[in-house]
Design brief:
Layout: H1 2-22, E1 29-36, E2 45-51, E3 58-61, E4 66-72, E5 75-83, E6 92-96, E7 100-107
Parallel strand pairs: 1-7
Antiparallel strand pairs: 1-4, 2-3, 2-5, 5-6
Length: about 110
C-alpha cells in the first residue's frame, strides 16, 4: 500500500497544480461612481452598468453625487444614469479592469 501511495503522490500533486492553474480568477473591481454637472455640482440619481455582451447589470444610487458598486467583473459596459431631477444624459461607454478600485466619472446635464 505504501508503494502505491508513493507512486500516486507525484501524480496527485501534478493534478492539484493543474486544477489550481486552470481555475478562473475570482477577482473583480470596486467601482466608485462620481456624478457631476459641467460646473462641478454633484447630482443624485441611479447609475447602472450594463455589460455590452449581455448579462447581469450593476447599480447604485448616488448620495451627494457619489456611490460605490462592489464586485464588478472586468469588461466593457454602458453607463446609464437617471437623475432624481432633470434630464438624463446620454449613455456612455466604460471599460472596467478585472480588479482593483476604479473611479468612474459621469457627466450630468
Amino acid at each position: 500500500m505504501r508503494k502505491l501511495l508513493r507512486r500516486l503522490a507525484p501524480l496527485c500533486l501534478a493534478l492539484l497544480g493543474l486544477v489550481a492553474f486552470a481555475a478562473p480568477a475570482l477577482a473583480d473591481a470596486l467601482v466608485v461612481v462620481q456624478v457631476r454637472t459641467g460646473g462641478g455640482d454633484p447630482v443624485d440619481g441611479e447609475v447602472t452598468l450594463r455589460p455590452r455582451g449581455g448579462g447581469a447589470s450593476f447599480s447604485c444610487t448616488t448620495r451627494a453625487g457619489r456611490c460605490q458598486i462592489p464586485h464588478v467583473p472586468g469588461g466593457r459596459y454602458t453607463v446609464h444614469f437617471v437623475p432624481t431631477e432633470g434630464e438624463a444624459p446620454a449613455d456612455q461607454p466604460a471599460m472596467i479592469p478585472p480588479q482593483g478600485r476604479v473611479t468612474l466619472n459621469v457627466a450630468a446635464n
